Amino acid sequence: MANTASGPWRLALRRHDAAGFSPRPGAVRPPPQVSQEPMATAQPKPPSDAKPKRVRRRPPRPRSLRLHGTVARELGIRIVSGVLEPGQILEGEIAASSQFNVSRTAYREAIRILAAKGLVHSRPKIGTQVSPRKEWHLLDPDVLGWIFAGEPDEGLIANLFELRRIVEPDAARLAATRRTAEQLARMKAGLDGVAQHGLATEVGRRCDEEFHSALLEASANDFIVSLTSGVAAAIAITTAFKQHRLPAPHDALPVHLAVFEAIEAQDAQGAHDAMARLVDRGFSDTMEARDPAAGRGPIPVCC
């Protein structure tokens, strides 16, 4: 009987023959013994001068997603500076997207951003309209940044510091009796950072922001704490505005230290009065930065 085995089976037969198997006539050749152990495969060694594997990077965002924020900022600055007045209707989508050299999708996204901040609203058959100032989210960090991007309105500055004068001194009063050791440590670390880096640097301004944020949280009043983001943004933005505009701004660190020391000593009235002086100094410096030729006194106190 002819041997018709082929492929791997024929190779196995040859191996058995080489091992000394001599079949008798008519005998059935036993099947080959296959090893159960996996065959080791040699791993090629990378060459010594092999280049490091490239890290796969995310594809860049679509152009529309990069541009809608720029368009929103440009329109936001025009609105808060008065170039676009309340009630004014913005250009149509086609004309506006052509003016900004962006897609209609990017322009629509920019309008959605402004609408979420209360600066514009859409009316059927009329278009997109600038909202009244009373509807603006003035404590939104972006809106505050747009206000101080150019020449901020004097009335808005006064209103902003009136709000700080109402909130922060009483927050400091509460913090003096309610602060925790952790909050006190955060306040101190913030002022240490201001002393080290100075308010002329972004790092120093972040440390100042941390001091004020910890102070507001130490008031343990949920409604005051909810103002932390807006108040902290207002402090950071006005501080940067003063540092850039005034050739030699006043050193605000001693006034900050007076607030901290009163809170540390649990002196509620002392903390209130020190914070009131700090806010008044901030207002005077900000108005001087807006118009160096016209000095301003502290905010009038009604009671």
SSE inventory with pairings:
Elements lengths: L6 H12 L44 H18 L12 H7 L4 H13 L3 E4 L3 E4 L10 H7 L6 H25 L2 H17 L4 H17 L3 H4 L2 H18 L7 H12 L3 H23 L13
Antiparallel strand pairs: 1-2
Helix pairs in contact: 2-4, 2-5, 3-4, 6-8, 6-11, 6-12, 7-8, 7-11, 8-10, 10-12, 11-12
Describe this structure in words.
With 303 residues, this protein is mainly alpha-helical. The protein has two domains: 64-135, Arc Repressor Mutant, subunit A (Orthogonal Bundle); 141-290, GntR ligand-binding domain-like (Four Helix Bundle (Hemerythrin (Met), subunit A)), CATH 1.20.120.530. It has twelve helices and two strands. It has helices spanning 7-18, 63-80, 93-99, 104-116, 141-147, 154-178, 181-197, 202-218, 222-225, 228-245, 253-264, 268-290; strands at 120-123, 127-130. It has a two-stranded antiparallel sheet. A hairpin with a 3-residue loop joins strand 1 and strand 2. The longest helix has 25 residues, at 154-178. The relative contact order is 0.09. The model is unreliable at 1-6, 16-23, 58-65 and 296-303 (pLDDT under 50).
